[in-house]
UniProtKB/TrEMBL annotation:
Residues making up the signal peptide according to the UniProt record: none
Keywords: Cell membrane, Disulfide bond, Glycoprotein, Immunoglobulin domain, Membrane, Repeat, Signal
TM spans (from-to): none
Residues in Ig-like domain copies: 34-119, 136-220, 230-313
GO cellular component terms attached to this protein's record: neuron projection; plasma membrane
Name under which the protein is recorded: Neurotrimin
Protein location: Cell membrane
PANTHER family: CTX-RELATED TYPE I TRANSMEMBRANE PROTEIN (PTHR12231), DPR-INTERACTING PROTEIN ETA, ISOFORM B-RELATED (PTHR12231:SF253)
Provenance organism: Papilio xuthus
Length: 382
């Protein structure tokens, strides 16, 4: 070590490093003193990256430059020598004028003031601040998980985040829809906690807790809010009409969570099983379900009452639809009429060459008189 530097005082700090003071050199002429050509710029660096602090001194002559960590009063380097035992710190210099302090893999403990000093008398120095920023992260063990709550109760979701600067936290629905919050329709709520009073099924869905602090990237956590309620049922049409030979579809709408078990019964209480004449099929949309029952080729025996039933662990409900017979429209060609014409056509095959097919016959059946026309047509054929 240069003779210009003597360790005149040493104090042991918790990190095991000694703080040393440097004996200054007296210079009789002010013009011979070193001078700093520019301030040390404050540096902002993201944790994990490398930092560089620059100190530029003119007219250094035989004086020495030292880097000091101000908050701990620890000398990091003296001129060409590294004093600290921190392996992440190194030194470089250029033309006996520019002195660079390198800090690799910057950590939060490196945040603070750094001083570049020259051993003049009095000592001359400049200082710069190393601002270490940390992107936000969600603290999982302090943040809510997927939550199930009964409709009408209150619920609070919590999201804790860390980072530097301190992250800003907000909540919004994943689907981007507004939601009711304390009587207002809002798109987002600020703060680490989201408290919803008298929660309803409309609140059900995925919520995003988003933390940001202008240090990219922002981070989010997805939390499902599930609202339990017993089944509710609505029927678009409680009275349906159909004519014999027609296909008809009955429809019920249900809402329930947990998801309900849905089925149909006849007016005799028999459960309807899909297959053959009947086709029962649900259409799901979240906690909504559309119950559909298709009845094929209606006969007299199919008219009557049908019940749609929904059950879950919180309760059950049902609704009734009445299926009534209605007259066939004039353009309808029923199975009975087709059978009559087919039999008569077989008996007198080939006697009406101007009639090409049954559709042509059907087109003559209009209004209330089509039954009589069948009889008249039969007599012509005979």
């Amino acid at each position: 070590m240069s003779e210009d530097y003597r360790r005149s005082e040493g104090r042991e700090f918790p990190n095991g490093q000694n703080v040393v003071s440097v004996e200054p050199i007296e210079v009789p002429n002010e013009s011979m003193y070193p001078r700093f050509t520019e301030p040390i710029p404050n540096v902002t660096v993201r944790v994990g990256r490398d930092a560089l602090l620059a100190c530029v001194v003119d007219n250094l002559r035989g004086f020495k430059v030292a880097w000091v960590r101000m908050d701990t009063q620890t000398i990091l380097s003296i001129h060409h020598n590294i004093i600290t035992q921190n392996p992440r710190i190194s030194l470089s210099y250029n033309d006996h004028r520019s002195w660079y302090l390198h800090i690799k893999n910057v950590q939060e403990v490196d945040r603070g003031w750094y001083m570049c000093q020259v051993n003049t008398d009095p000592m001359r120095s400049r200082k710069g601040y190393l601002h270490v920023v940390v992107p936000p992260s969600i603290i999982d063990n302090m943040t809510s998980v997927d939550t199930v709550v009964r409709e009408g109760s209150d619920v609070t979701l919590v999201c804790r985040a860390s980072g530097y600067p301190e992250p800003y936290v907000m909540w919004r629905r994943e689907d981007g829809q507004d939601f009711n919050y304390n009587g207002e329709s809002v798109a987002a709520v600020d703060g680490e906690t989201l408290t919803i009073t008298k929660v309803s099924r409309l609140h059900m869905g995925a919520y995003l807790c988003i933390a940001s602090n202008e240090v990219p990237p922002s981070i989010s956590k997805r939390i499902m809010l599930m609202v339990q309620f017993p089944p509710m049922l609505s029927i678009p049409n409680q009275l349906e009409g159909a004519y014999i030979g027609q296909d008809v579809t009955l429809e019920c709408h249900t809402e329930a969570y947990p998801s309900s078990i849905n089925y149909w019964t006849t007016d005799r209480g028999d459960m309807i099983i899909s297959g053959g004449k009947y086709e029962a099929f649900p259409v799901d949309s979240g906690y909504n379900k559309f119950m559909m029952l298709k009845i094929r080729n209606i006969t007299k025996e199919d008219f009557g009452f049908y019940k749609c039933i929904a059950k879950n662990s919180l309760g059950e409900t049902d609704g009734i639809i009445k299926l009534d017979e209605i007259p066939a429209p004039p353009s309808a060609f029923t199975t009975t009429q087709k059978s009559i014409l087919d039999n008569q056509t077989i008996r007198k095959k080939g006697q009406l060459p101007n009639i090409q097919n049954n559709d042509a016959i059907t087109s003559n059946f209009q209004g209330e008189a089509y039954g009589e026309q069948i009889r008249d047509f039969g007599s012509v054929l005979l």
